[in-house]
Amino acid sequence: MDAQQLKGHLDLLLLASLEHAPRYGGQIIADVQAATDGYFNLREGTLYPALHRLEKAGWIRGEFQLLPRGGSPVKVYTLTSSGQEELRAQRAAFERFSGAVRGIIGGGA
Amino acid sequence: MNETERYLRRATHGLSGQARRDAQLELRGAIEDKIWRLTLLGLPEAEATQAALRDLGNPHTIARGLTRVHTVPRAALAAVLAGVATLLGVQALAQVPVVQAARDPSDRFCVYDEAVLKEMTPARQAALLAQLARPGGRAQLEADCRATSPAPRTVLLRLSDLIAALVRGNIGVRTLPPLDGFLYLTFAGEGAERTLDLSAYSIPIGKDTYVQTWSLINHLRSASPVPVRLIGEVNPLLEIGAARLQLGTPEAPVLAMDLYAAALADQLHSNPLSVLGKPITVDWGGMEDPASARTRIAVNAPDDVLFVLVTNEWLIGTPSPGGPGYLFRVLRARRGQLATSYQVKKQQGLVDTVSDLVNATEQRQKAMLLYRLDPRDLREVKLIPVPGSQLTLQPTP
């Protein structure tokens, strides 16, 4: 998927990836890649600025945590309650959008 | 300095202080995590480090992205510039793009349309149909509508000016030809596009397309991720985050009070006032004509502070069937007073709560309830109740 296509849905993708459990950057990349069979190849250059932006917006909260492997801590992100609201809104908007596109291009539902 | 440290310095170039330290710590954690996984696969540490850094990509790409997020927000910068513009006076303000306004030549607003029936409650539907069945019923209904919806409500904005002004304010605009007025907006720092659908109320005048002011305000309320506010009373500046648009011209003035009323009507529709969880219908009562003031209320507020007055005038007098429920009007403080055409003679008419207003209505007593309007963000207009017991009726001449 090219960068331009990804850009429009990046926030939704990131918020959704934190919906069920807190995650740090490396986990988010791996999760997104696994869930989409490698269709989305999220890179750090896109991921970290986006995570920081979502954090500034108050939708996610980052906290440094030590891992059992030792070494430097990783920054683990959690979805906030306003992030949950935003996720709901963006998910609904995406569903309206994709429904409208399906209506135009036809094909299987 | 080792390879990882060099990478971290490059990837956080442009950041400073705590933001830089945090970003470096986060990226270091990410790099070490990758190295750890690669060594688990059997790669020697030096090779694992090189592979991890390669995988992370160009450090300058990360730096560019992070700098964009962490440097002074555009809104703060614009606020500083706006302050400077005020100091420089009118000439600098003239740089704010102007959106030309016009009156609606067709004035279709108060023409009865069967489609509205579907949006009404069964009781109001029945009442409306009863009125329409009477001789001259429809003409009377439309006249009533015009009486409570004066001309300023139909002021239109030229679409091409609006788009140009949004673009000047750094809001990306994409149109969807041939639908006039259907816009996709991209706000700075936002990935997703937001739709601003003004097409339902777009009107061609000559070669230009115009859209309704109230439609713009109401759609911005849901589309904008940044605060939306108005500055000034006649031809106000509309601020959408850092973007600034001058609405209207001296020839075709736009009144801020109409736009507040539009936002509030929209808000009270989706989030109505209620008594014990039971919502009450509050419609816009139109503009207040200062010349016909029959009630004056003393308020402890400087000039231009906005208030919202909710009255039961339609429910107490001889309301036309299918007419509105409670009415609200936006009032502006002048010399410590608010003026309204609804006549309340007794101090008891100034009630404290929504529940008092409903009780008074049930007892067929004229009553009004006052709120102070907090105009900071049209996306959520805050109404701060002003208890009637703290207000004083002033004698009217």
The amount of beta strand of chain B, in percent, is 15-25%
Major beta sheet, strand line-up of chain A: 1-3-2
- How many extended strands of chain B? 21
**Low-pLDDT windows of residues of chain A:** none
Average predicted local confidence, pLDDT of chain B: 80
Alpha plus pi helix count of chain B: 13
Main sheet attributes: strand count, strand direction, barrel closure of chain B: 5 strands, mixed
Q: What oligomeric state do the depicted chains represent?
A: heterodimer
Query: Which class best fits the helix and strand makeup of chain A?
Result: alpha+beta
- The portion of residues assigned to helices of chain B is 25-40%
Total number of strands of chain A: 3
For the record, give the distance between the C-alpha atoms at the N and C termini of chain A, rounded to a whole number: 21 Å
Order of helices and strands of chain A: HHEHHEEH
Principal-axes geometry of chain A comes out as globular
Tell me, what's the shape of chain B? elongated
- The percent range for strand residues of chain A is 5-15%
Largest sheet of chain A: 3 strands, antiparallel
The average pLDDT value of chain A, as a whole number, equals 83
Q: Low-confidence runs of chain B (pLDDT<50, min 5 residues)? A: 72-94, 149-154
Set down the secondary structure blueprint.
The complex is a heterodimer of chains A (109) and B (397).
Chain A: H1 3-7, H2 10-17, E1 23-24, H3 25-35, H4 44-56, E2 60-65, E3 74-79, H5 81-105
Helix pairs in contact in A: 2-5
Chain B: H1 3-11, H2 17-40, H3 45-56, H4 59-70, H5 74-88, H6 90-93, E1 98-99, E2 101-103, H7 122-133, H8 137-148, E3 155-158, H9 159-168, E4 172-176, E5 179-186, E6 194-197, E7 203-205, E8 208-212, H10 213-223, E9 228-231, E10 237-240, E11 243-247, H11 256-270, E12 274-275, E13 278-279, E14 282-284, E15 295-298, E16 306-311, H12 313-316, E17 326-332, E18 337-340, H13 354-362, E19 368-374, E20 382-386, E21 392-394
Parallel strand pairs in B: 1-11, 14-17
Antiparallel strand pairs in B: 2-3, 3-8, 4-5, 5-6, 7-8, 9-10, 10-11, 12-13, 15-18, 15-21, 16-17, 16-19, 19-20
